[in-house]
Amino acid sequence: MIFFQAVADTTAVADGAESLSVFEVLWKGGPVMVPIVLMSIIAVYIFVERFYTIKNAQKTPQSFMNSIRDYVVSGNIPAAKSLCEETDSPIARMVEKGIQRLGKPLKNIDVAIENVGKLELYRLEKRLHIMATISGAAPMIGFLGTVLGMIQAFFEMSNAGNNIDPGMLAGGIYQAMVTTAAGLTVGIIAFLGYNYLVTMVENVVHKMEATSVDFIDLLNEPA
């Protein structure tokens, strides 16, 4: 919205000229602005929701695996399960699945942990593909608005014949510029937000993989 406000402020270029509000600028963009604005709202919602979801997934206490190690080594399996149930994180759910498989071959335990990890990764990446789609679709829709605006401008020129008035062309050109700028702005922001969230997910996955290895190593230790 800061970008659109800056665009609006630049319209006051002559004495007595009135600057346009953000909503007036958006309105001047024509019908193509509707999907662009909707995509911007969706992108912001997904980013905020995913940001806090992924951030909470990173909050596994540092002492978690130390406590799990102590419980498993001492044979206090119920306490280990209870700790996993009380800890709301992907890592805790992976370890809990491994504890539930104790007594079975290590390969089976490893596979069970890996399957839970895949499910947790799916939950973390939920709706991220929508942001990726918006990052590519918003600029394209903006360019569509540009084409439509230029078509309108040339249509006005063809109807005017030799009496071409620059004011007749202003509407089409204005629409072309606004939709292009809006589409690019939404696309860039969605692209940056998507990549930031992907980086956060990769950090969580790295911790999940490290914890999985630590847990399997714990089970491989001699009694």
Structural notes for this entry:
- By secondary structure, the protein is mainly α.
- It has two domains: 135 residues, no CATH class; 79 residues, no CATH class.
- It is rod-shaped.
**Relative helix content:** over 70%
Distance between the termini: 62 Å
Strand content: under 5%
Number of strands: 0
Uncertain runs are 1-18
Give the topology, please.
Blueprint: H1 2-9, H2 22-28, H3 33-57, H4 64-74, H5 77-86, H6 90-100, H7 106-124, H8 128-160, H9 166-220
Helix pairs in contact: 1-2, 3-8, 3-9, 4-5, 4-9, 5-6, 6-7, 6-9, 7-9, 8-9
In short:
With 223 residues, the protein is mainly alpha-helical. Helix content is 80%, strand content 0%. The longest helix has 55 residues, at 166-220.
Highlighted features:
223 residues; 9 helices; 0% strand; mainly alpha; rod-shaped; 2 domains; disordered N terminus
